[in-house]
Design a protein that fits this description.
This protein has 721 residues and is an alpha/beta fold. It folds into three domains: 18-137, 2-Layer Sandwich (Chitobiase, domain 2), CATH 3.30.379.10; 146-502, TIM Barrel, CATH 3.20.20; 533-706, no CATH class. The protein is built from 22 helices and 22 strands. The strands form five sheets. The protein has an eight-stranded parallel barrel, surrounded by four helices. Helix 16 packs parallel to helix 20 (607-640) and helix 21 (646-671) packs antiparallel against helix 22. The structure holds zinc ion. Residues 281, 293, 295-296, 346, 348, 350-351 line the site of zinc ion (ZN).
Length: 721
């Protein structure tokens, strides 16, 4: 859809609030001298880094070509049009012949001026004239950013991945990045995994000893390049490389503040095992290895030590936000070890004496006081967890929210899981919450370790709601993946540009972004993403996914995990999905892989463009491999249903499928971002093992009715020969 908006400088994304064109054309040059006044060293570094990333050389000896940056204080500007909460990001950028002047009331605006200036230099490098002009600019949402969940993907991000993520966020004028340092998804298993998904992205002690309790993820995967299986236990990259501080500093130098995120209670299985004092107890007072005891002094002391040493180490001078989750405070949750219902609430003698609502309200008051005493300015809570469908918002919590002192120390983050029913009774501007600042959270690229899961509509709707309800922040949640740059762009532009333009539909905005970023291939780039999203969301594709989500299975102790691929085959049969339908999905995935490869060959892309295309290509390839696996299995089933010769035909199909699979896996290894590659190879490499076991079963003349359509229990990676 074409947009009617007229821009003075069409190249700017997001568009500034005001551009006043001056006389004539500027003469920007590749080499500039940077002169600053009253600019903090970190902001000066940000300016310098952003310009250098754009290809500008900052040199000492230029007299004529100067970027002059000054922080002048609010009284030097007419800020009458700028709401108070947005003045921190305000900047004035004047381009005048060979000189550029950046003037801001506060430090923060420097970075956004630099990002805009970087685009102007880019225009100049591309041979486009940059007119003399003055820009006045500010956002529409004060806090904008992304929380990266402690999950598959985030846990393997190396320094370079973080830098890239932060550069992409800064370019979109996002100013906050939450790093989840602790979370468990005990009900989510990777295919055939014997463990919960548990992640602790930091050490427990300030000075970790040799027996420091740690979080380890087990990866069992086949590496095509070296033709060997790996079975490795690895700590999260942030622990292994001890680089949280490096990431923090990098973020600061790009205008992106890093704040900690933690999920403390619901489906928390790792911390209560590593630090037993934290654990909820059963009726006999024995730690369950689950949840959190909200009342014992020992649990509070252990939390103080753990969180305290983290803050001491990384936030000596304090931190604006600490995001604390209490996900799923239910009485019945599938226990990670046996899928039996388990309560997250402690049953120790002290906890038993009070109602859940009272216990929880007391605990909240305590932890908020503790965190603020450690230099945290505001503690952020997700609302769906606190309100729990209004169950928990009892008199105790209500009284707490009315307490102005408490309310001034917290933020309620209105999470939209696409499940409106949960919190439909409450809105952030409800009088109940009038003392409390609100954030809003769209759910973005969640679980891109399993499937491509873009969610532009949710991002769009949540920013609109935040503006309507005058929320203080929009912080999306998910994982970082360069395949989702357009989603980041949509978040950035919605939080920055004037929202009143009816013609700024999602399609128009992403088209504008893509044309600037992807030039001649913009339409094809967006087409690939749309087709990939459609294919990934296809109901047949959803049946093929390998992830295990535990549900309560009454009486279950074992065998509660989804049998793979048997259950998926049953689901296909139940829905009467034909082999031709699955083949059609594979064909579409192949078309997308080829189209993306075509885009890669089109130009000499820079790193960010290249890795974005690579990740998209690998996402399409993942669907192709999944679909082809089931095409083979459906054909094998068909062959085995014949009266004679079925086994031989089936063996032939399976044997032929292995080398094809290996060739196709190679594409994942070469293109998937490293942070997602192992987990993806773990899911997909299992197909090789399944084929081999099944061929052996057929060779051993196992009767068709007795063939197992799952991997053998407790499988181990094959020994190296
Ligand atoms: Zn207790």
């Amino acid at each position: 859809m074409a947009t009617n908006r007229r821009f003075e400088i069409a190249e700017l994304f997001p568009q500034p609030k005001e551009v006043i064109l001056g006389e004539g054309i500027s003469e920007l040059a590749m080499d500039v001298r940077l002169s600053t006044s009253n600019v903090l060293p970190v902001q000066r570094k940000a300016l310098r880094s952003i310009l250098m990333l754009a290809g500008v050389r900052v040199v000492a000896n230029k007299k004529k070509y100067v970027v002059d940056a000054q922080v002048l204080g609010p009284e030097a500007f007419d800020l009458s049009k700028v709401p108070a909460a947005l003045q921190h990001d305000f900047y004035e950028l004047e381009v005048k012949d060979s000189e550029v002047f950046i003037r801001t009331p506060y430090q923060d605006g420097m970075v956004w001026a630099a990002q805009t200036l970087a685009i102007l230099f880019g225009m100049m490098f591309n041979g486009r004239a940059v007119p003399n002009m003055v820009i006045h600019d500010w956002p529409v949402v004060p806090n904008r950013g992304l929380i990266l969940d402690a999950n598959w993907g985030t846990e393997r991000m190396a320094s370079l991945d973080w830098f890239q993520a932060l550069d992409s966020m800064s370019a979109m004028h996002l100013n906050l990045c939450g790093i989840s340092i602790y979370d468990c998804c005990s009900s989510i298993r990777t295919s055939q995994s014997d463990r919960s998904s548990e992640f602790l992205l930091t050490n427990i002690h300030l000075e970790p000893g040799p027996n420091e309790p740690a979080s380890k993820s087990r990866f069992r995967y086949y590496n095509v390049k070296y033709d060997r299986w790996y079975d490795r236990d690895d700590s999260p990259s942030l622990v292994e490389n001890d680089n949280f501080e490096e990431v923090q500093v990098y973020g600061r130098e790009r205008g992106v503040k890093i704040f900690p995120v933690m999920n403390l209670m619901g489906h928390s299985t790792l911390l209560p095992r590593l630090i037993p004092a934290l654990s909820a107890c059963d009726e006999k007072g024995k730690p369950t290895g689950y949840g959190l005891c909200l009342s014992s002094p020992a649990a509070k002391k252990a939390l103080e030590e753990f969180i305290g040493s983290f803050l001491e180490r990384y936030y000596e001078d304090g931190v604006e936000y600490f995001h604390l989750g209490f996900d799923d405070l239910s009485d019945i949750y599938p226990h990670a070890a046996d899928a039996l219902p388990e309560s997250v609430w402690c049953k120790c003698s002290k906890c038993k004496k009070a109602s859940h609502s009272k216990l929880f309200a007391q605990f909240l008051r305590w932890i908020v006081d503790f965190l603020t005493s450690k230099g945290v300015e505001k503690v952020v809570f997700y609302t769906d967890e606190l309100l729990q469908g209004e169950k928990l918002l009892g008199a105790d919590l209500e009284a707490l929210l009315k307490d102005k002192d408490f309310a001034s120390k917290i933020i309620l983050d209105w999470e939209d899981l696409g499940n409106e029913t949960k919190s439909k009774v409450w809105k952030s501007n409800d009088p109940k919450f009038k003392n409390v600042t609100a954030w809003q959270t769209p759910l973005a690229n969640r679980g891109n370790y399993g499937a491509f899961s873009r969610n532009l509509e949710n991002v769009d709707a949540v920013v609109a709601r935040a503006l309507k309800e005058k929320s203080d922040g929009v912080i999306a949640r998910g994982q970082y993946d360069p395949a989702y740059l357009e989603q980041l762009a949509l978040l950035g532009v919605r939080c920055w540009e004037t929202p009143d333009w009816k013609e700024d539909t999602i399609d128009a905005l992403r088209k504008r972004w893509a044309e600037l970023k992807w030039g001649g291939v913009a339409d094809r780039y967006l087409e690939v993403l749309d087709r990939l999203a459609a294919l990934s969301n296809d109901s047949v594709h959803q049946l093929l996914l390998t992830w295990n989500y535990l549900g309560i299975r009454p009486g279950a102790k074992k065998d509660f995990l989804k049998a793979y691929p048997a259950d998926a085959l049953d689901a296909l049969a139940a829905k009467k999905v034909t082999t031709a339908q699955v083949q059609k999905m594979a064909d579409e995935a192949v078309a997308l892989v080829e189209m993306t490869a075509g885009l890669m060959g089109e130009e000499r892309w820079d790193d960010l463009h290249r890795i974005s295309l690579q990740s998209i290509l690998a996402s399409a390839q993942r669907i192709r491999i999944q679909a082809e696996f089931f095409v083979t299995l459906l054909k094998v089933k068909e062959a085995l249903s014949k009266k004679s010769g079925g086994s031989a035909a089936a063996q032939k199909l399976l044997t032929a499928a292995i080398p094809v699979l290996l060739e196709e896996l190679k594409v994942i290894e070469e293109n998937m971002p490293d942070s997602l590659m192992w987990i993806t190879m773990q899911q997909l490499g299992l197909q090789k093992l399944f084929y081999e076991e099944f061929i052996n079963d057929l060779k051993a003349k196992t009767p068709v009715a007795k063939l197992t359509w799952t991997l053998s229990k407790g499988w181990e990676v094959p020994e190296d020969l």
